[in-house]
Structure formats: structure tokens, C-alpha cells
Amino acid sequence: MLIDGLAAWLAHVPDVRLTGWAASVAELLRTEPSPADVVLLEARLADGSDPVENVCALVLRRRLVLVVSAMPGGNLARRMIEAGAGGYLTKNHRLETLLSKVRELAEEKTACPPGPAAGHTTGRDCARPVLSPQEHAVLLAYASGMTLAAAARSAGVRPGTAKNYLERVKEKYRKAGRPAYTKLELAVRLREDGLAT
User: What's the per-residue H, E or C state across 84-148?
Assistant: First the structure.
């Protein structure tokens, strides 16, 4: 009923379409005809799968994830965001809010690249933070040995903006349980996550 309602509503939205649905993340990854720009994920699926592991499975396959749940936020929402979900909306939000967030995520394209991150998980959480293309560009330039000013020029941003990006990157690594405070530590994280090339 929910899927039918969503499909009917989106039929009148020219720039967003429902490309498919599945009862589990495993089924989605097995049957989707092509990767969706954004995956809407229910926090608690009927198969009893772990919500955070579901986010990790999607993020590690370069999917952008928006969690939509009947449950209010809290610790689970925080853990899903830390695992890489691009947002967490409760079902009492208006459909326009859902559309706005879907568009925002599709434009940012902040999925983390595939690679060896599965070997760097801690507990049940995905330990590779999701970096925006701008954050990745500044991090790559800075960790390669450039000064902050040179990294900013390389990424096409102002030094103050580059500094803000690096602070966000450091915070994301801290939340993932893999703090990196120095240029050397950031370079190590890039290599660990296969993001250095």
C-alpha cells in the first residue's frame, strides 16, 4: 500500500521516479536493473536485518541512502547517519520534504567509493566516513603534502572553505572511530580506504 501510494504520487513529479523496490537490501542489490540515484531505506525491515549493516551494505556499493522510518530519531538514527546514510526522516514529514531531501542527496552524490573498507569496520558500524566530492578533493590534495592554501587552489576553493572541509573530514573520521588529526594520519586514512588514487 505504501509503495503503491508513493508510486502514484511520484507519477506527477517530473524529475523523480521510483525505479524499483525490494523487501530487503540483499534482494535490492540482487534484482535492481541499475543502481538508483538514491535508495529510500526503512530502518526496520521485515527480514530482521540490522539497520546499520543495511546502510553499510548500500554505502559500500556507492548507493546514497535516505532512511525513512516510523520510528523517531535517537541512537539508531545517529548510528545510521554515522554509517553513511545521507539523512533520516520520520514518516510524519510531508512528501515535499522527502522530495527535497532526495533531490539534495542526488545532487551531492556523496556515496563513498567501493574498496577495502569492509576490512576496516568496527563492531556493527561502517567505519568509512562518507565524504562529499569537495571534501575528498581537498583531503586528497592536502594529504598528498600540499599546504592548505595549495590544496584549496587545487580543489578550486578558498583557503577558509578548504579548512572547513578538512575539519568536517576529521569530524567524520572521529565519529567513525578512526580519528585522524594530522596530515600524516589523514594520508594513512586515505590509503586504508582506497581513496588515495
Answer: CCCEEEECCCCHHHHHHHHHHHHHHCCCCCCCHHHHHCECCECCCCCCCHHHHHHHHHHHCCCCH
Q: Which residue is associated with the grid cell 543495511?
A: 54
Q: In order along the chain (197 residues), what is the average pLDDT of each group of 10 residues?
A: 84 88 91 88 90 85 86 78 82 84 77 34 54 87 90 91 94 84 86 71
Let me know: does 86 contact 65? Beta carbons within 8 Å.
yes
- Strands lying side by side in the sheet with 39-41: 39-41, 65-69, 87-90
- What domains sit in the chain, N to C, each tagged with a CATH number? 2-120 (3.40.50.2300), 133-192 (1.10.10)
